[in-house]
Amino acid sequence: MAILNAGGLAEDLFNDVSIGNELPSEGTLIVSLDQWREHRDELISRTEPIGVCLKSDEKPDEIAADLEYFAVIALEFPTFRDGRPYSYARLLRERYGYTGELRAVGDVLLEQLHFMHRVGFDAFSIADDDAVRAWEIAAADVSVWYQPTSDGRASVMELRHGRR
Questions:
Q1: How does DSSP classify residue 86?
Q2: Which strand ranges, in their side-by-side order, compose the sheet holding 123-126?
Q3: Which backbone phi and psi does 115 adopt, to 5 degrees?
Q4: What's the rounded Cα separation, in Å, for the pair 47 and 37?
Q5: Mean of the pLDDT values across residues 119-143?
Q6: pLDDT score of 1
Q7: Using CA atoms, how far apart are residues 13 and 52, in angstroms rounded to an integer?
Q8: Half-sphere exposure (CA, 13 Å, Cβ side) for 99?
Q9: Residue 100 CB contacts under 8 Å (≥ 6 apart), including other chains
C-alpha cells in the first residue's frame, strides 16, 4: 500500500501491528484500540512515535483524553459504504482539536479521496499503481463546495455573499 499525503508519496514510517497480539519492543507502531488500552503505560513510555487505528465501530471519544500521545490516528474504512470514519475525522479535527496525521486506511477509493480530505484526513493508504495521479484526479473533480468544513475553503454560500 502507498501512503499518500500533501507531499505526494510518502514512506510509511509506522509498523501497523494493530491486527496482531504482540507488540515489538521498539519502533514506531500503530496499535489497535484494545492494544492501546492494555499497554497504554508501556506505549507512553516509549521514545518512538505511536499511532492508533480505530475500526469504524470504535468512536474517537474513546481516545480523546490521549490524543497528545498519537503521532498518527488511522481510521479504518471496512467498506467504502461505511461513512462513520468521515464523521470521526471531522470530530477529531473540530471537536477534539487533533492536529497530527489523520490517515484513511482500508477500503479507500479514488472517488472518495477528495471528500476524505475535506473532513480532515491528510494521509491515505491506497492500493493504486499511480497514487499521485489518483490524488490529482480526485483533487480536480470538484471546484465548488456546498458544505463548510475545517479545511478553510469557502462554501458556495460564502462565495455568493462575498465572505472570505
A1: H
A2: 8-10, 2-5, 123-126, 101-106, 70-77, 50-54, 29-32, 15-16
A3: -70, -35
A4: 18
A5: 77
A6: 65
A7: 14
A8: 1
A9: 67, 70, 71, 72, 73
Specify whether the CB–CB gap between 48 and 28 falls below 8 A: yes
| CATH number of the domain to which 28 belongs | 3.20.20
Q: Which domain holds residue 133?
A: 2-160
Handedness of CA 126, 113, 98, 101 (dihedral sign): positive
Instruction: Give the tens place of pLDDT for each residue, 5-64.
Output: 876 787 888 999 998 778 898 889 999 999 999 999 999 999 999 999 999 999 999 999
pTM over 0.85: no
**Number of domains forming the structure of the chain:** 1
How far, rounded to the nearest angstrom, does the alpha carbon of residue 13 sit from its chain's CA centroid? Answer: 15
C-alpha cell at 101: 496525521
pLDDT tens, 132-161?
A: 777 777 667 666 766 776 667 777 778 888
All three cell numbers of 7, joined, read: 507531499
Backbone angles phi, psi at 38, to 5 degrees: -75, -35
Question: Average pLDDT of 86-113?
Answer: 92
